[in-house]
Design brief:
This protein is of the alpha+beta class. The protein contains 9 helices and 7 strands; from the N terminus they run ααβαααββαββααββα. The strands form 3 sheets. A 3-stranded mixed β-sheet has the order 1-2-3. A two-stranded antiparallel ribbon has the order 4-5. Helix 1 crosses helix 5, helix 2 packs parallel to helix 5 and helix 4 crosses helix 7.
Length: 280
């Protein structure tokens, strides 16, 4: 019995040694590379000379709880709307990423001049050279910088229930040339009026779409479920949400600029605004 226990103990010890030695050897190789790799030291010095703009694909997103708004508004429409306010920031990002691309080409050229792997500041003695080089290459790969060199904006639109459960989504990615083209078209204005009808219609669609179902029900409740023009109640007429200052005159979809009107009063107001615009 004693001999059997001794044999078992020896087996367990041998297994322990087999498991621990490779780990010990790996750590020893790893420490040697970190301390003595010429190329790793050169790469760290090179990295200190290059500072890239930290950027990735720009994401713009919006969620609609109204199926009609989700279907009516395209990803390009939503990007156009945002470009009214965000184009300065976006242009700065483009410039920074362009600089990334130029500097990255220089960086890659200097990478090719690094000392070859397997060259160390001291003798590796009895360590395994193949293992050292494998570890060294892994460290180098981790340290090499990979900056963003291509600008893009991804627009994602979601359709959800009023409680927030997502039903559907659509997305589109726009490259630098496409974004610049849209910025140029957004900036074609005559005073406060956009000269490009497609741009103007896109902005109007998005502005109208900001009136969510949740917002609509809140406004009906605020206005007592009655038309604020003629006083008719929901029981006798179809109620709608109206922009007090029309979108065509710069009105926004905010609670202070929205009111409840019946369909007849809303159509009458729309006709008067159309006549005004046609004569001005």
């Amino acid at each position: 019995m004693l001999i059997f226990l001794l044999i078992i103990s020896c087996c367990l010890l041998a297994t322990f040694i087999c498991i621990q030695v490779p780990k010990w050897n790996y750590n020893k190789h790893k420490q040697f590379v970190l301390l003595h790799s010429i190329s790793l030291k050169e790469l760290k010095l090179l990295n200190n000379e290059y500072h890239f703009y930290d950027a990735s694909t720009q994401y713009i997103q919006c969620t609609y709880d109204n199926e009609h708004s989700f279907a009516d508004i395209s990803c390009q429409d939503y990007l156009i709307y945002q470009l009214q306010y965000e184009q300065r920031k976006i242009k700065q990002q483009m410039i920074a990423i362009d600089k990334n691309r130029i500097d990255y080409e220089k960086y890659k050229n200097e990478l090719s001049n690094l000392t070859q792997c397997g060259t160390y500041s001291t003798s590796y003695d009895k360590l395994n050279l193949e293992k050292l080089i494998k570890i060294e290459k892994a460290f180098l790969q981790q340290e090499i910088k990979q900056p963003t060199t291509n600008f893009s904006i991804a627009v994602c639109l979601y359709y959800s229930t009023i409680n927030g459960s997502i039903y559907d989504r659509k997305s589109q990615v726009f490259n630098k040339n496409e974004v610049n083209n849209l910025i140029e078209r957004v900036n074609h204005k005559n005073g406060t009026f956009f000269t490009d009808n497609e741009i103007w219609n896109a902005i109007c669609r998005v502005e109208r779409g900001k009136v969510s179902n949740k917002m609509r029900f809140s406004l009906y409740q605020r206005d007592g479920y009655r038309c604020l023009k003629c006083g008719i109640s929901q029981e006798y007429a179809n109620l709608e949400i109206d922009h007090i200052v029309p979108i065509a005159k710069g009105g926004k979809s905010t609670y202070n600029n929205l009111q409840t009107l019946c369909h007849r009063c809303n159509v009458a107001k729309g006709d008067s605004i159309a006549n005004y615009l046609n004569h001005h």
